[in-house]
Design goal:
Length: 191
């Protein structure tokens, strides 16, 4: 059985960090991407994995990170898109620029990473793309009540949109994992 080579975004904290730690413990070789250099250095110290400080909204930086990772790891088998930000505050009080930033990171950042990684996975003959989202993005927000809806539906909505990757690339395309998150006591991200 061959060792998995994977990219994990948002690896500097939260679910991305927990995912990177779990994958590393299972023997996967990783390229971890995060804009938080300190958080990334910490998990790199724990896992010994490749790390690249980048903002996933920066297409040039993402392309460079993925190219470096694919070369260092000897190809890619998968991507876990865990990077994302939360909208905090009452909807009526949050500025439009904040909404734009959430969409830029959670939707377009995810697309940047997928686009950059797909070519390497197609060359390998297979691959998996896992986009992690929050169930909070599916809940209605009250306009005057503070909310912490992580994705404001952006990441949840990105998964079906990214299905075009598998339908337009033919039989050798990466598999897309679009599953609704479930509550589970089996996995708890460290705080």
């Amino acid at each position: 059985h061959r060792m998995m080579n994977a990219i994990v975004t948002g690896a500097g904290s939260g679910i991305g960090r927990a995912t990177a730690g779990l994958f590393a413990a299972e023997g996967a070789r990783l390229l971890m991407i995060d804009r938080d250099g300190a958080g990334l250095a910490s998990i790199r110290g724990e896992t010994g994995a490749e790390a690249f400080v980048a903002d996933i909204t920066d297409e040039i930086a993402v392309n460079a990170a993925v190219e470096r990772g694919a070369k260092a790891l000897g190809g890619l088998d998968g991507v876990v898109n865990a990077a994302g930000i939360m909208l905090r505050g009452a909807v009526m009080e949050v500025g439009l620029e904040t909404f734009r930033r959430v969409i830029e990171i959670n939707l377009f950042g995810t697309i940047n990473v997928c686009k950059a990684a797909i070519a390497s996975m197609v060359a390998a003959g297979s691959g998996d793309i896992i986009n992690i989202s929050s169930t909070a993005g599916r809940r209605a927000a009250r306009p005057t009540r503070p909310t912490s809806s992580r994705s404001v539906s952006t990441r949840h909505d990105a998964s079906p949109g990214l299905s075009c990757t598998s339908s337009t690339m033919g039989a050798d395309s990466p598999r897309r994992r679009a599953r609704r998150p479930r509550r589970s006591s089996a996995f708890t991200a460290p705080s």
